Amino acid sequence: NEKYVVTYEANLEVKSTGETFNVNNWASSTSGTKTSGDGENITKNITKNGSYDQNTGLVTWNIMINQNRQDISGYTINDSIPGTIVGNVTLTNNSYGSQTTIPVSENTLNYTFPTDLTNEQKTSQYTISYQTKPTAGSTQETNVAKMTSPTGTTIQDDAIVGITKREKSLDKSF
């Protein structure tokens, strides 16, 4: 009646934004004929999106973090921000709705989740949001967000936003 537990970590390469894929994980014993296995759907743990608002002339960027609800303690989010930041960069805990402002230095966001998070905070999903004024003359902005684990493994996602300026829709003359 001995019990053996094998714990391991695997790095999976996800090739598209927010892709869900099936991971089959099988184990078998050499003591008899018992075989067990299971699979689960896993979503990329960081996704980036953006949209351009013709009325304001601003791009709104969102980074969704920890969709897999893993322990996020000590993970670092890095984002080189194109254009000019307008307003604050906010981190929202999606489970509780709490928000905090994240400092940005020279258009680079570097945020590390504290290692002393509560159990609920460790496995919460988060969103980082901010707005930018696009680079002058740009017809599209590309932005890459990276998430690095405390062991140094980095995953990333990017978003490309088209910039279409609104043409005059009404001319008035007297």
> Strand fraction band?
over 45%
Which H/E pattern describes the elements? EEEEEEEEHEEE
Structural class: mainly beta
Our Rg estimate from Cα atoms comes to 21 Å
As laid out across the biggest beta sheet, the strand order is 3-4-9-6-7
What does this structure look like?
The protein is mainly beta and 174 residues long. 2% of the residues lie in helices and 49% in strands. It contains one helix and eleven strands, in the order ββββββββαβββ. The chain has one helix at residues 119-122; strands spanning 20-28, 35-43, 46-53, 58-65, 76-80, 84-93, 98-102, 108-112, 126-133, 140-148, 154-162. Strands 3-4-9-6-7 form a five-stranded antiparallel β-sheet, with no helix packed on it. It has a four-stranded antiparallel β-sheet with strand order 8-5-10-11, with no helix packed on it. A hairpin with a 4-residue loop joins strand 3 and strand 4 (58-65). The termini are far apart. The model is unreliable at 16-20 (pLDDT under 50).
Could you give a quick summary of the protein structure above?
This protein is an all-beta fold and 174 residues long. The protein has one helix at residues 119-122; strands spanning 20-28, 35-43, 46-53, 58-65, 76-80, 84-93, 98-102, 108-112, 126-133, 140-148, 154-162.
Secondary-structure map with pairings?
Elements: E1 20-28, E2 35-43, E3 46-53, E4 58-65, E5 76-80, E6 84-93, E7 98-102, E8 108-112, H1 119-122, E9 126-133, E10 140-148, E11 154-162
Antiparallel strand pairs: 1-2, 3-4, 4-9, 5-8, 5-10, 6-7, 6-9, 10-11
